[in-house]
Write a structure and sequence with these properties.
The chain is globular. α15 packs across α16. The chain is 43% helix and 17% strand. The strands form 5 sheets. A 7-stranded mixed beta sheet has the order 4-12-11-10-9-5-6, sandwiched between helices. Strands 1-2 form a two-stranded antiparallel ribbon. The chain has a two-stranded parallel ribbon with strand order 3-14. It contains 16 helices and 15 strands. With 426 residues, it is of the alpha/beta class.
């Protein structure tokens, strides 16, 4: 705010004289509290300050190669070259995004032979990565899901799910998912909870590579979940951030989503290409609602565009063009499938090496969950005291809940990590 001048008097040689003083008024924003630091960013900042040459950052959810360096996929570099050669302009994309990207993203998720794709029953819009897709979906549900302004999320779930839905005006409830005793899926708890929520409720599922636990239901368990959802008229809202990155097989990773669709269920779907194409900063994603006919699809898409317009008007171009080039070019797509499998295989290998090293060190704990879990993250089962010791004594940085990003584990630090974990769990 501007400074305000106020007159005042002072004595000079016994005579009163006028002068002007400046009073700084109270700011409009004095009552704004300092927000808490982001948990993941806080881990990274602490890591940067550490001078231990053996330090390891297992907090950030971004893929690293076996030398611990950020990895840009060769197919992405090639796609960028091809796009540059086209000398494209910088015109706005449509509100719904790049159509060649959104159609390819939907085909990747549902499969080319899906009735959703064959019958054009997907209302798909480009989003600002997976976070943006969730925000669009949350806004749509808050406006049009008339049965309840509430979504049931797994416990635990990705830390951003709750604020995203709350920001859109939705209430949050939880159903049991993770079993801390087994470091695995609490199937019985999930079934019991979903049997007892109101019919026609909205339920969030992670398609694969559950974040933060790395715990996924088995195919048979997914079949039972789909049967329950169908019988109780629940609506499935899928978050699909790791297609191809979990197992290395895009078809296998899409099993849950495709099975629900095959069972005749309508779904909402959020996709991200941050992990499986390494397009973190490009913010490439998509949001899809499936419809029962063309008229419903058109109505849904029209409302999605109305929601997007005051949010950000138009999505970013570059990431969508890169992903579109890769998904729609036969040669680049084949190359990408090999490269995404390579990333998944390295993660799986690091899980195996970590577990094997713990066994070699004589640990008596059951570490089977390290290899049973899948994807970028692993819930180690370490408690807060053990996490604190890992950080303070060994400069191993992770979140307080014991979650590690396996992408931060590589051949030159896996033995050190195993020794540190063994020491704090003796």
């Amino acid at each position: 705010m501007a400074l305000v001048r106020a007159p005042s008097l002072f004595l000079r040689n016994g005579l009163a004289s006028a002068c002007t003083t400046f009073i700084r008024p109270r700011s409009w924003w004095t009552e704004v509290p300092l927000g808490p630091p982001d948990a993941i960013l806080g881990v990274t900042e602490a890591f940067k300050r550490d001078t231990n040459p053996n330090k390891i950052n297992l907090g950030a959810g971004a893929y690293r190669d076996d030398e611990g360096k950020l990895y840009v996929l060769p197919c992405v570099r090639e796609a960028e070259k091809r796009i540059m050669a086209k000398n494209l302009d910088k015109e706005y994309l449509p509100i719904a995004g790049l159509s060649s990207f959104t159609s390819a993203a939907a085909r990747l998720a549902f499969g080319s032979n899906s009735p959703v794709i064959k019958n054009n029953l997907n209302a798909t819009v480009q989003s600002v990565s997976g976070t943006g897709a969730l925000r669009i979906g949350a806004a749509f549900m808050n406006k049009f899901f008339n049965h309840a302004r509430c979504i049931y999320v797994p416990d635990p779930t990705w830390g951003n799910h709750v604020p995203i839905f709350k920001h859109a005006g939705m209430n949050i409830e939880r159903y049991r998912f993770y079993d801390p005793l087994t470091c695995g899926f609490n199937f019985d708890g999930a079934i019991e909870d979903l049997e007892n929520i109101p019919e026609r409720s909205l339920v969030l599922f992670h398609v694969c590579a559950h974040n933060p636990t790395g715990v996924d239901p088995s195919p048979d368990q997914w079949r039972e979940l789909a049967s329950l959802v169908k019988r109780r008229s629940l609506f499935p809202f899928f978050d699909f951030a790791y297609q191809g990155f979990a197992s290395g097989d895009c078809t296998k990773d899409a099993f849950a989503l495709r099975h629900f669709v095959d069972e005749g269920l309508q779904v909402a779907l959020c996709q991200s290409f941050s992990k499986n194409m390494g397009l973190y900063g490009e913010r490439a994603g998509a949001f899809t609602m499936t419809a029962i006919d063309e008229n419903e699809r058109a109505a849904i898409e029209s409302q999605l565009k109305i929601l997007i317009r005051p949010m950000y008007s138009n999505p970013p171009r570059n990431g969508a063009f890169i992903a579109s080039e890769i998904l729609n070019n036969e040669e680049l797509n084949a190359q990408w499938l090999v490269e995404v499998k390579g990333m998944a295989d390295r993660i799986i290998s690091m899980r195996t090496q970590l577990r094997d090293n713990l066994t070699k060190l004589g640990s008596t704990r059951n570490w089977a969950h390290i290899t049973d879990q899948i994807g970028m993250f692993c819930f180690t089962g370490l408690n807060q005291e053990q996490v604190h010791r890992l950080t303070q004594e060994f400069s191993v940085y992770l979140t307080k809940d014991g979650r590690i990003s396996v992408a931060g584990v590589c051949s030159n630090n896996v033995e050190y990590l195993a020794r540190a974990m063994h020491e704090v769990t003796k």
